[in-house]
Specification:
about 210 residues, mainly alpha, 8 helices
């Protein structure tokens, strides 16, 4: 018989480590200007010229931070982990660790008209991947209360499921939209990040 929250603290610890590494790697993609890039105006204009990289860094930093906070919240609903959930977490963390790469691409190429669409589409894909892995984790854990607290209200579970599916649909739409209107695609990514800044809903409980 499984102990309460069997395996969950260890899973959270591992996830915290990967979150910390991924979020720290983001700043490494903001490159120091080379000496030959510093013009007559000095270093400050060259640093200000890096504003797209700063913007991409902030957006991805907040996004990963939100995933960390929401992962902490959602793990409260798990009573235990199992082998399949652990592997789904590995998939999710692989997607999180991938985020610094499309972030660097976005910061480097978003202001280049000939490369903007590809850069934004690639970044939107980088946002879609962890969202899709998150949905898979939730669907597996929540199916017939497989790994969730038994008193969680099914309406609350269904609400979260619909929310996660909607996020995936919007991110997928952002990937497609980037090929025609890249700044509209970025608006969707920013909007979803801002939406998840709000506190998670309080869980409903079954009575009796």
């Amino acid at each position: 018989m499984s102990e309460p929250r069997s395996g969950i603290p260890r899973l959270e610890t591992f996830c915290d480590g990967v979150f910390a590494i991924a979020i720290a790697l983001l700043i490494l993609e903001v490159k120091i200007p080379h000496a030959d890039e510093v013009g007559p105006g000095g270093l400050m204009p060259a640093l200000l010229h890096l504003w797209p990289a700063y913007g991409a860094y902030i957006l991805s930093f907040v996004m990963i931070g939100i995933y960390w906070a929401n992962h902490h919240s959602i793990c409260r609903y798990f009573v235990r982990s199992d082998h399949a959930l652990n592997l789904l977490h590995v998939l999710f963390l692989m997607c999180i660790a991938f985020v610094p790469f499309p972030t660097a691409i976005l910061g480097q190429y978003v202001m280049h008209p000939e490369a903007r669409r590809a850069a934004v589409a690639f970044y939107s894909l980088g946002m879609l991947l962890p969202a899709a892995a998150w949905l898979l984790m939730w669907l597996y854990a929540s199916h017939e209360h497989r790994l969730l607290e038994p008193d969680l209200d099914q309406r609350f579970i269904d609400h979260l499921t619909r929310q996660f599916i909607a996020s995936n649909a919007l991110y997928a739409g952002a990937v497609a939209l980037a090929l025609w209107m890249p700044f509209a695609s970025l608006t969707i990514c920013v909007g979803l990040t801002l939406l998840y800044l709000s506190p998670p809903p309080q869980p409903g409980r079954r009575h009796g």
